[in-house]
Write a structure and sequence with these properties.
Four copies of one chain form a homotetramer.
Chain A lengths: L1 E5 L4 H13 L3 E6 L3 E7 L8 H4 L4 E5 L19 E3 L2 E3 L3 E7 L6 H13 L4 E3 L17 H14 L2 E5 L6 H7 L2 E4 L7 H8 L5 E4 L6 H13 L5 E5 L17 H8 L4 E3 L1 H5 L5 H11 L3 E5 L17 H14 L6 E2 L6
Parallel strand pairs in A: 7-8, 7-14, 7-15, 8-9, 9-10, 10-11, 11-12, 12-13
Antiparallel strand pairs in A: 1-3, 1-4, 2-3, 5-6
Chain lengths: ~350, ~350, ~350, ~350
Amino acid sequence: MLILMSLNTPRKDIDAVKNKIVSLNCTPHEIPGKSKLAIGITGPTDQLKKEDFIMLTSVEEVVRVTKKYKLVSRMMQSDDTIINFDGFKFGGESLQIIAGPCSVESKDQIFEIAGSLKESGIKFMRAGAFKPRSSPYAFQGLKEKGLEYLQEVKKEFGMVIVTELLNFVSLPAILETADIIQIGARNMQNYALLEEVGKHNKPILLKRGMAATVEELLLSAEYIFSSGNKNVILCERGIRTFETSTRNTLDLNAVPVIKKHSHLPIIVDPSHGIGIWDKVPAMSLAAVAAGADGLILEVHNRPDEALSDGFQSITPQALKELLEKIKQMAPIVNKKLVLNEDK
Amino acid sequence: MLILMSLNTPRKDIDAVKNKIVSLNCTPHEIPGKSKLAIGITGPTDQLKKEDFIMLTSVEEVVRVTKKYKLVSRMMQSDDTIINFDGFKFGGESLQIIAGPCSVESKDQIFEIAGSLKESGIKFMRAGAFKPRSSPYAFQGLKEKGLEYLQEVKKEFGMVIVTELLNFVSLPAILETADIIQIGARNMQNYALLEEVGKHNKPILLKRGMAATVEELLLSAEYIFSSGNKNVILCERGIRTFETSTRNTLDLNAVPVIKKHSHLPIIVDPSHGIGIWDKVPAMSLAAVAAGADGLILEVHNRPDEALSDGFQSITPQALKELLEKIKQMAPIVNKKLVLNEDK
Amino acid sequence: MLILMSLNTPRKDIDAVKNKIVSLNCTPHEIPGKSKLAIGITGPTDQLKKEDFIMLTSVEEVVRVTKKYKLVSRMMQSDDTIINFDGFKFGGESLQIIAGPCSVESKDQIFEIAGSLKESGIKFMRAGAFKPRSSPYAFQGLKEKGLEYLQEVKKEFGMVIVTELLNFVSLPAILETADIIQIGARNMQNYALLEEVGKHNKPILLKRGMAATVEELLLSAEYIFSSGNKNVILCERGIRTFETSTRNTLDLNAVPVIKKHSHLPIIVDPSHGIGIWDKVPAMSLAAVAAGADGLILEVHNRPDEALSDGFQSITPQALKELLEKIKQMAPIVNKKLVLNEDK
Amino acid sequence: MLILMSLNTPRKDIDAVKNKIVSLNCTPHEIPGKSKLAIGITGPTDQLKKEDFIMLTSVEEVVRVTKKYKLVSRMMQSDDTIINFDGFKFGGESLQIIAGPCSVESKDQIFEIAGSLKESGIKFMRAGAFKPRSSPYAFQGLKEKGLEYLQEVKKEFGMVIVTELLNFVSLPAILETADIIQIGARNMQNYALLEEVGKHNKPILLKRGMAATVEELLLSAEYIFSSGNKNVILCERGIRTFETSTRNTLDLNAVPVIKKHSHLPIIVDPSHGIGIWDKVPAMSLAAVAAGADGLILEVHNRPDEALSDGFQSITPQALKELLEKIKQMAPIVNKKLVLNEDK
């Protein structure tokens, strides 16, 4: 950490800063410059906060040198984290596809889609039983009934189930059904919930908030990690910008940035990201090319009848064609698409 | 709701849309235009969703005419909602000030600040016992101990207490201490929590999310309303933009927009909004001039020693000077600053 | 400027950085820290660019300590710049109002509005002869004819004319008519145009670009200054964000930020800023309360017939009521509304 | 166009709207709905503006049905526009690479880079002679001298030259040297300049503004088209968002959106888009996968010595490796990378 002060700072203000540093068990180092006086700090600087200094008289700026996240950073662990489901892996050279409808709507619907997905070799199925909706009057999911259907789908088709956790109350039920617990964009900074799922060992799919920076996403993952759960998969799903021709702005830049700074797998959700079904395949391929460790795709057998988000869902047939292209593209970026042979 | 189709749409596609409308118990009306065919809909259109139509063949756009929120809208209730604490009101012609430190740090700190505030005639005190922090390593609040101190402050100084609820688990404790429950920006779309506080009658201070539109803020208020709690105070606290010279971009435009579309009181948090202490007074005055029903201000007796957000806190002395100016300004916008005479 | 390197950087990389510094006629200072090695630089650091160092091996970050703008900064000149038109001033304790229609539409229109404005004591009239429009099919202004009418208005009513310059070609004509040359948001980073108007002595009204930071606005003012013209008035007119309920997000935070860092007058355009006529008065008062040096307002005698931007224009009657409130509010923020007594 | 009014609108207000429509030579159609009255309009609606109606009494909303751009839309021309340079094409199935340094720095530099590019089969060379820089103190390019070197490069290596036009004054010189004239992000809404280049026949590379929507980019292209020049190549180069870990947010979503709505070629600039050299290859591949018609890449033989933007430049060696991957990836998205065999 560096404290910047103006060159003509009175000696007593400089001394106040240095005394504050000493009082925090660190050591100050005066570094005079041409236009500013910098005071470097050594010692247990982890404990220091910008706020410790910024209000002191004559202090102009406080510069933090190190990243705020630790456990999830590449500095801490240089090898990729691999999250393994019976040989189906997230991270490393694997490329995984999670697919399914936005919501569980009925047993028939979920079974029919699961059947189509299995035929395409998809191992991971997404479907929401509890849905966060900006309007209280919109369809909120089948709730417990939805989880029940997901249990049956798992038994019948051997799918690995990804479903969203909205709150503490439904955690026991979600823990029973989900193989991967999704924390949605709106809950990315619900720290209490992050700490709670951090106490279990079940893999967490953590989606980036609509206005969250990459650093904040990693800090939210750090909450889960520091609570004990090291099985975290990050997910880029579009951020909010001024552009109105797409639902969100899928930020693929986040993929290479996260791959560089963190060892966690990062997957991409082009369905929410661009939000228009006929443009989902293009963005899916772009995500793979950018180096993503996987995709999470909304697939619906009758998108025009979907109770939610039909407009961004692709059909099982479109998925099949997309998988064909992904299979070809993956090796170019040193990835391998892993599909379920056991159809 | 209006469905727009291209002029040369085949008859069967038009009929499919009209049949869908009929199947939803509504009535279609064909309206040919120069470049588009519009189909108007009458009947119980509240039940319709854009998604019902957008995927049908040949449909180009679906335009919703009415607002998605109802109970919180001016259409539903033209008079201002007034939330009353023994004559200290939010809404109508009243202008209220909530002030206090970001966090409860110690009994001494909270008592000293409460004393200063009381002297200035402040009736509403804010202070966090549970703090949401983007890093798990930052100070998270004194938790239960903090609530205890707030209880004592209430007894000693007769303050009305505003404190943040982070999750279900601490709801009972918060209900016991808080007179106004704050739902922070990060929880604005934590719908389960909104519904939960909607079951109680305690006033809620609902802060706008960092990337939430005004419509989404009103829809979140609608969640609380439709769960039964009609005591909601909205709060603008800055949105996230590309600008980096301020912590957030305090969006005062939201004030006249909300005053027009909703009957709920709307207050402003300039401390988080601009995030730089010496610019808080200017933005406070601007908020009053824009028509806000109140302010929530971070005040700390020793900002440079604050455990969180000291950089955006003003001193009790600065508050006193600001109140003087607000008192003069309020009548110009038909407001009256109500301070506690009982000092 | 500070160069940050990791602690275990090999000596040869450190030496490479130090040699680079020396080659640029500056002096390096090694400052070892706990987790990083910083190299401070003294000497003629103005000439240094981040890019000089960021690519060198082992360099992790380059921190610039001083602001990039100089001539327009408060450090360079602590007193407010005052721009004076026969006693009507921008800057210091004056509060000025510029008003008028978006575009000159006809001689009758411009004369009628000028008459109303004069009656209200308005000295500065805005009206565009050349209009920048996002569509080539929208009304582009009366061009030379419009300037002619503005000349006549000036003669008849003694108004000070503010009109927009779009390009080099029309500069001579604009110079002849305008008393203040407006550079619009879309041209804020048209550096060639900035340098060109910088060669003349005529006051410039420089509007902030839709996605320009405060620093970039000040750097654009620096272009005009460093070309020789010191008569610059800055204008906040709304930035682009995700919010859709207002045309733009008027960023009043920019006012106290700019007042702190620059000596230039800063005025506010609430008409473009919020873009909805019935909310313009609220944002006008907010701008005054935030400390703005003036307002630029769209006023039209028949807003519903305006050829452009009628939706954000207020009537002369609404202006009169607004001026009354501003007159009362100004002294609270140490300002004085200066109107033309010579009606 | 549709005018929405409330159901209980008095007859005289409805008639006023209908009379206005008739006075504009169009025909009104009343369409009563459940909660609103809509008035549809037929006839020459192209001439109508939202502003014609929005201010009329009782009008609540005006909905425009058709897109504002015409000539550049797919509706007007369903086949891709192809821009051909002796068999090297932009548009259709071709994938083109433009590469080169940010600025011409010296004859040696530009010759050395051109040599490397030619070796890799690159036909299109970018290099700025006039540079737009946010600070007046930053390197502004070699100007005329730079164009001279570009002329020599063209003669020596047979390169097609892409260079930026900043203003009217340098247009003759640019016309003489450039084969493709670049209009930069800051000038995307400099309409006078767009109309000026629209009068010539030389291909234009039009970059998206930092806060421009896709629709605005297409409208700016429409300016060039409607002035007579149909040789326009669009370029996505990153937009401005709240994210700070990348220089800009490269918005690849724009690629499939533009491919759907316009027939113009769209290329991508990952160098400015993400702004960090080691992440440029990942975003380049992502752009190709998203369906882009080409890339424009900053390549510098000694990025650490570049006078501008070295931090986002890749080396000729990195380019070579990238081209190898692009060559493999292109056919998957039905594209063909066209390189110059004549090395």
